[in-house]
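In response to the reviewer comment on reproducibility (Comment 2.3), we provide here a single inverse folding case reported in full, input and output, so that an independent group could reproduce the run without further information from us. The structure tokens appear first.
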């Protein structure tokens, strides 16, 4: 969609009011955040952009929304929420800072009006948010939205049926190894594989199909689990997706040497279970698809480090406390919660979202260097994986 000329003009005007890039290097550590907040406030008051879908500065149309419903998790995966940082002294968000279900549903509807047709609930561990089924029900009532959820599976056996009944369409389960010792070491809370497999079975029985199983591959940690994982789920209808370990957040001590490139993963599986490449289901699909030559299913690889796909990224992220992030690797977000809590109308909030999106030019993964890795990016548990 092309913005009306009035819309483009308004966006240009906004850019001249608050030169965000100028304050990134300022002495005040909160200057950038303050500037984003002032920007979003001004955007809510700005001349309205044309209603409906919006494209960003690189022509990418807003399509997906990931919502982090809690920054807490019952796992301490070594690559995501390492125990030495997320320990008993770690200050998670206080309850009052979290968006309520009503606020989430309201802002989600505004995003849908701006072109979002796919919503994923995530976190932290989304099944730890009390009564999350009630939120699922509210979002399912938004209409033609593909509504999914990503979980570590620990509570899934208990909740699969109620989530499906509430209107969840599908589920993605993270599982980094079928080897119990490896899995327990990676989740770092000694959680057994068997319980996650029970959750996967319960989700399939509840109709949350096709299930996707996400495995983050960390070289030297779980690369020996790649082929067994593929073999285990081959022929089940579930789709395993092997994800390159990324430098999200600032706490996981990421090094390029720890990344097992997706091409290597495909080679390892193909050597034992022959594969052929498959076309994407739609433009911008995150995973590259490979199907088994014997027709027994498919796998995916997400090569976010070795073959960055920023040019197709149409995802916005809403953090647990209601900030809008336009990139997984961002350092700050735009505070929508303050708009939600201070009497702004839906149209104004929609306008703020549209103005932010029209200015979006992020392409972190394409410009990643040894230096960018050290930027204090927000944690994935807070922004939503
Ligand atoms: N707790 C839920 C779960 O485990 O699926 C949802 C949140 S978790 C942050 C979402 C996904 O991000 C998981 O599949 C997790 O493995 C993945 N993830 C976390 N840190 C990552 C990293 N550094 N690189 C690649 N993927 C990562």
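Designed residues, in position order:
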């Amino acid at each position: 969609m092309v913005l009306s000329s009035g819309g483009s003009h308004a966006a240009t005007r906004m850019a001249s009011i608050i030169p965000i890039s100028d304050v990134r290097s300022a002495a005040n550590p909160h200057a950038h955040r303050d500037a984003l907040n002032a920007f979003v406030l001004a955007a809510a008051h700005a001349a309205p952009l044309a209603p409906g879908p919006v494209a960003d500065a690189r022509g990418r149309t807003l399509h997906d929304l990931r919502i982090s419903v809690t920054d807490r998790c019952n796992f301490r995966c070594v690559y995501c929420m390492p125990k030495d940082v997320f320990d008993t002294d770690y200050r998670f968000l206080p309850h009052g800072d979290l968006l309520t279900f009503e606020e989430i549903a309201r802002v989600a509807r505004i995003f849908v009006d701006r072109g979002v047709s796919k919503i994923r609930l995530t976190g932290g561990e989304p099944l730890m948010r009390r009564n999350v089924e009630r939120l699922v029900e509210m979002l399912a009532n938004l209409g033609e939205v593909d509504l999914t959820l990503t979980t570590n599976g620990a509570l899934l056996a208990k909740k699969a049926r109620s989530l499906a009944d509430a209107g969840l369409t599908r589920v993605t389960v993270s599982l980094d190894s079928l080897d119990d010792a490896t899995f327990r070491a990676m989740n770092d809370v000694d959680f057994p594989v068997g319980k996650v497999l029970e959750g996967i079975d319960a989700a399939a029985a509840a109709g949350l199909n096709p299930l996707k199983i996400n495995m983050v591959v960390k070289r030297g940690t779980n690369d020996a689990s790649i082929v067994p994982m593929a073999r285990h789920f081959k022929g089940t209808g579930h789709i395993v997706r092997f994800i390159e370990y990324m430098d999200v957040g600032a706490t996981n001590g990421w090094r390029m040497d720890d990344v097992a490139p997706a091409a290597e993963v495909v080679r390892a599986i193909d050597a034992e279970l022959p594969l052929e490449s498959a076309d994407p289901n739609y433009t911008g699909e995150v995973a590259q698809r490979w199907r088994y030559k014997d027709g027994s299913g498919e796998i995916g690889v997400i090569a976010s480090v070795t073959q960055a796909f920023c040019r197709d990224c149409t995802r916005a992220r809403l953090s647990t406390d209601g900030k809008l992030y336009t990139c997984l690797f961002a350092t700050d977000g735009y505070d929508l919660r303050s708009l939600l809590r201070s009497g702004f109308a839906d149209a104004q909030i929609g306008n703020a979202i549209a103005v932010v999106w029209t200015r979006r030019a992020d392409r972190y993964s394409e410009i990643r260097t040894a230096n960018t890795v050290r930027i204090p990016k927000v944690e994935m548990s807070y922004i939503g994986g």
